[in-house]
Design goal:
Shape: globular
Helix content: 40-55%
Largest sheet: 8 strands, parallel, barrel
Bound molecules: phosphoenolpyruvate
Distance between the termini: 13 Å
Radius of gyration: 17 Å
CATH topology: TIM Barrel
CATH superfamily: Aldolase class I
Order of helices and strands: EHEHEHEHHEHHEHHEHEH
Strand content: 5-15%
Number of strands: 8
Amino acid sequence: MPTRKPFVGGNWKMNQHGAEAVALAEAVAKKFTATDKVDVAVFPAFPYLAPVGQALAKAGSGIKLGAQDFYVEPNGAFTGEVSLSMLKDVGVKVVLVGHSERRHVIGETDVLINRKVRAALDGGFEVILCVGEKLEQREAGMTDCVNMAQTLYGLGGVKPEQMARITIAYEPVWAIGTGKNATPIDAQSAHWRIRDAVKYGVFTGGEKGESIGNAVRIQYGGSVKGSNAAELFAQPDVDGGLIGGASLKADEFVAILDAAAKKQ
Ligand code: PEP
């Protein structure tokens, strides 16, 4: 069984203006230096990618710069959109795809999400593919079915050699920004089934499918805080987290990173 290095992302969403965003990045970079133990990425809003990237570089931090979104086409008449090569220009290394707010508020489909995953991988980026069930789907007993289907759609056509740049974030929609997190057991059970979907669905089992599935990192996201991170990360198939609200406060985010650093 491979050892998976924990990976924690801070999704700042549509929060933090100029100086605040830079100060937050600087504070996290100063307080957390164990990027040999935990991969860390922060995802500021588009206008602040460059200054946050510069602040991280100046601090000599191993924290990666991430983008919350992008458009699939390389250039052209797509008013308001931002291309992957523009993100590369400002130092972005990792991109989010399929976040529940983009699926359910903005209306992105599984087809577009799959195009984005493949475009970002082809462009050399790391990708965090977010999946997760809504409350009514959970109540209807469809949790694993939804997560496995979103995983299969999202990763369709991804080449085995690209899988090292994929992380999956399991984010139950009812837990995002609500203060209600999945129990560690529920998270473990969902992660285990998502890993199975990679092993036997995206790839068709055998030694290759098993080894790709065992190597892929699966983050948990949904109301993770300093106080509940350790018990979630202690689960065998929980390889870190994608953090929204708690990533906006340096001390709280660093407490989560410290919990991830203790996972072995
Ligand atoms: C998220 O938006 O990815 C998220 C997990 O948010 P929160 O931590 O605020 O629930």
